[in-house]
User: Fold this.
Amino acid sequence: MSKFCTSCGQQLSDTAGFCSACGREQIVSESFNSASAAYNQNTSIPVHTFNENSRFVNQGHERADSISGGVITSFILGIIGMAAWIIPIIGAPVTIVGLVFGIQGNKRRRSGLAIAGIILSIIGLFATVVNSSIGAYKGATGTLFQHKSEVVFCEKVDSKLHPINPGTTFSTEEFYVTLTTAAPFHTTEINLTIYKENGASESVVIDTDRTVNQDWSILAVPLTLNTPGKYKVTFSRTSDGVKLGEGIVTIK
Assistant:
């Protein structure tokens, strides 16, 4: 489009403010200004829309990445929990966090990896609870560190109560039975019970309590059994009945 000077008739551009021939000021059409403004406004819409869509797409990708990260974290913590249950102070928090991540990830987007993480975390948490319960019981009964005990029959003992000439068969003369534990007895009395085995049954022939020091870990008791046969000898704490050890001896 073009226009003409209102004074001399010179052809001018639509946006000219003055005539290039006579210098007369020109009036710019209001309709042209309105059309230009509308055009500019319309052309800006696609740019605005593109920016908004890009933002939503980016947010979607970020959310998906976050979910995937939680699912993977749950799976990894589940594997760690399967190995860490042996140390409850580590296994408990690891498996609980793994379980939380797995449940959240599975709610937002169902995934086999999330389910695997949940299952591993549950197994690890169960093992941790069982291990903690066993440790608490052993701690309360004083057997936490008592992994090994030994009952030995012998002809006699030395000054430190160590067995001399140990064996499993003795005559009706006096011999000794010793109890050695890896940890202190944690009691002031130990019960000694001797059973005579009679085929499928057994009968008690001796049931007595021995006074000991609770810090001791070795005890030697002299025995005399006058009747030939096979005997079972057991030691247990009098306070709670926890068995400390047992052994079998034959009298000829």
Remarks:
- Helices lie at 30-84, 88-108, 112-141.
- Residues 30-84 form the longest helix (55 residues).
- The domain at 149-251 is CATH 2.60.40.1930 (Immunoglobulin-like).
